[in-house]
């Protein structure tokens, strides 16, 4: 798998152009996509060299990633990618079932006109995934991009940060079993109707479609575990 290249909004107070934030994005997405394997030790010097950053931005990024529950540090042992605990799926799904429909409803009512144009363009992109022949890493990156776009459309930075965090954790679980899910392209294509609903300002439909999508995701993951 390769790096995810879909950026998300930085936390309040973190300049998006800072080297530490750029390092955070790159390392975060390697962790999400399991390019850095669960439980793998992380050497900040080697990681800095591989990414083209200095050690200071990488160290700052790793501190933030620890608050995201993507890495864990132990005194005298070092820093490691957190394990992926599939038993956490239920707890993560409980939160997403509450927050994701709310976010879709809010995005449908709060999105700016330029944002609605972006949502329609993304809807057109995901409709074509079945015929595009995209590989699994590309499809996974596209799924992340869709979710992050919807979160951004809410216009609520705090809600966006929370949603991104739990979507990241859910995606790590998904990556463990993705090879057992033959209908990945269909799963991605489901987002087209949701994106249309948000772009059209149909908040009730957006909320309903999101709830169905989150429920379906959890059911599919449990089916193959």
Give a description of the structure.
- This protein is mostly helical.
- The chain is 68% helix and 4% strand.
- It contains eleven helices and three strands, in the order H-E-H-H-E-E-H-H-H-H-H-H-H-H.
- The chain has helices spanning 19-32, 44-51, 55-67, 89-110, 113-127, 129-132, 136-153, 157-177, 184-189, 191-199, 203-224; strands at residues 41-42, 71-74, 78-81.
- Helix 4 (89-110) crosses helix 7.
- The two termini are 21 Å apart.
Essential attributes:
single chain, 225 residues, 3-stranded antiparallel sheet, 3 strands, 68% helix, disordered N terminus
What is the gist of this entry?
The protein is mostly helical and 225 residues long. It has helices spanning 19-32, 44-51, 55-67, 89-110, 113-127, 129-132, 136-153, 157-177, 184-189, 191-199, 203-224, and strands at 41-42, 71-74, 78-81.
Biggest sheet details: 3 strands, antiparallel
The global form is: globular
Strand content: under 5%
Average pLDDT confidence is 89
Topology:
Layout: H1 19-32, E1 41-42, H2 44-51, H3 55-67, E2 71-74, E3 78-81, H4 89-110, H5 113-127, H6 129-132, H7 136-153, H8 157-177, H9 184-189, H10 191-199, H11 203-224
Antiparallel strand pairs: 1-3, 2-3
Helix pairs in contact: 1-3, 2-3, 4-7, 4-8, 4-10, 4-11, 5-7, 5-10, 7-8, 10-11
């Amino acid at each position: 798998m390769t790096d995810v290249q879909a950026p998300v909004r930085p936390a309040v107070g973190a300049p998006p152009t800072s080297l530490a934030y750029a390092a955070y994005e790159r390392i975060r997405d390697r962790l999400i996509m399991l390019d850095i394997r669960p439980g793998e030790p992380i050497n900040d010097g080697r990681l800095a060299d591989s990414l083209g950053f200095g050690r200071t931005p990488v160290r700052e990024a790793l501190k933030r990633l620890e608050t995201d529950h993507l890495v864990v540090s132990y005194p005298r042992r070092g820093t490691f990618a957190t394990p992926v605990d599939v038993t956490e799926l239920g707890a993560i799904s409980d939160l997403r079932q509450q927050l994701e429909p709310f976010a879709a409803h809010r995005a449908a009512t709060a999105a700016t006109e330029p944002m609605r144009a972006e949502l329609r363009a993304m809807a057109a992109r995901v409709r074509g995934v079945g015929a595009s022949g995209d590989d699994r890493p590309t499809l996974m990156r596209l799924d992340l991009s869709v979710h992050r776009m919807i979160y951004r459309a809410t216009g609520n930075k705090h809600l966006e940060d929370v949603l991104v965090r739990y979507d990241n954790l859910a995606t790590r679980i998904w990556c463990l079993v993705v090879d057992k899910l033959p209908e990945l392209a269909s799963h991605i294509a489901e987002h087209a109707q949701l994106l249309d609903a948000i772009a059209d300002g149909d908040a009730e439909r957006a909320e309903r479609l999101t709830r169905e999508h989150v429920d379906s995701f959890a059911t599919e993951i449990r089916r193959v575990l």
